[in-house]
Amino acid sequence: MEYYYILFTIFVIIACMMVIDANVASAFILILKIIKTKIDEAYLRIVLHPQNPIVNLQKRWEYDKLAKELHDELVKSQQMSYNEPVIEEADHEQNLSQH
Questions:
Q1: In the chain, which stretches have pLDDT less than 70?
Q2: Which of 25, 42, 46, 92 is deepest in the core (most CB within 10 A)?
């Protein structure tokens, strides 16, 4: 219970100082922004570190998926070019006008 009283006392002191002087409020807000920035920086360093095995696995999955999609698209385009003749726009219009 003493822990909560200590926290409440600190909160009341900071709140009173913020009410009395606007600069204290600005400083408190800036300190909170600095703390948030440092936490975000540490998180990104952990997540984006090149030797992180979890991130490497996720990136490998993404790259494999992209490679599979590109391979399928390439195979599909090659099959279309070999199986179907390419009809030019002018030839297509002439065929429509003849019918």
A1: 82-99
A2: 25
